[in-house]
C-alpha cells in the first residue's frame, strides 16, 4: 500500500539514491517507495499510563471484554497478547495514512505453527477509549496458544514517520540490475537493499504500513495470503512452475536420479493444476492484501520467532478502507 512521501522524505530518498549510485533507476525507486511508521522501543513499560501503545506485557482492556480464548482438543487456551496500538499517538504522515485517527487496536495470537502454516490472529478494535480501561492481568496458570509469545517484556513504543522501499519486487530488481552499473562487484539491487536499510531507525522493533520485504525474496507472502484466502494455501509450493511440462520434466528427473523424492513431488501435482487454472484470480486477490504490521524478533521484548524471524500482519484493502480489523491475516517465515 503506497503512501506518498512528504517533501522532506522525498529529499532524503533522492539523497540516498545519489549516495548509493542508483540515479539511473531513480524514478522506479520513487514509484516503489512509501511513507510508513517505524515503531521504536522506548524503554520498558512500567504500566504508569493506561491505553498507550504497548508491545508485550499485558493489555489494557475494559471490564466488558474478556481475555480472548480458543478451545481445541487440549481444552481452553488463552491467546497470547502481542500489542495494543493507540492510533491517536501516531504522528501525521504527509497525507492521510488511511489508519484511524483514534481508538486502540489489540492483537493476540490464536495459533502459530511452522512457516508453512498461516498465523491465526484475534483482534479487537475499540473506536473510542472507554473510561473503565485498566490493565488486565494475565490469567493464572493458563495454557497459552503459542510458545514464542510468553513472558514478553512490556515495551513502550514511540512512532516515527519514515520510508519503506519495495525491495522484494521482482520487476524493480530486474530494472535496477539492467540499468545501473556494478560497483565494487555489487549489483544495483544489493545497493537498493542498503538504501532501504539506511532508513531504519535505531531500536525499531516493528513497522506499521510499508512493504513486507521478507529476508528471502522468494517468500511472496501476499501471494500466500491470497491463496489461503481463496482456499488452496498448499499451492505456494508450486509457484515456481509456469507449466505442467516443467513439472513433468522434473518428475522424470526425479524418477531417474532420486526416485525416493518422486512421491513428495507428485503430491503437488493437483496443486499446480489448480494454480494454473486460478493464476489470474490469485494475482487479483494478491493485489488486495497489504502489510499492516511487521513485528521483528527483538531483545527489547525478549521475542524470538523461529530463527529471529518477523511476524507479518496483513489487511485486505476493503477492510482497511472501512477501518475494519476483524479479518487480519498473519504469516511468519523461517530463516
Short description, anyone?
The protein is of the alpha+beta class and 335 residues long. It has nine helices and 14 strands.
The percentage of residues in β strands lies in 15-25%
Helix and strand run: HHEEEEEEEEEEHHEHHHHEEHE
Please report the first level of CATH classification, the CATH class: Mainly Beta
* CATH-defined fold name: Hypothetical protein YwqG fold
Strand order of the largest sheet: 8-7-6-2-10-1-11-12-13-14
The portion of residues assigned to helices is 25-40%
pLDDT below 50 for ≥5 consecutive residues: which ranges? none
**Tally of extended strands?**
14
Count of discrete structural domains: 1
Properties at a glance:
alpha+beta; 335 residues; two-stranded antiparallel sheet; 9 helices; ten-stranded antiparallel sheet; Hypothetical protein YwqG fold
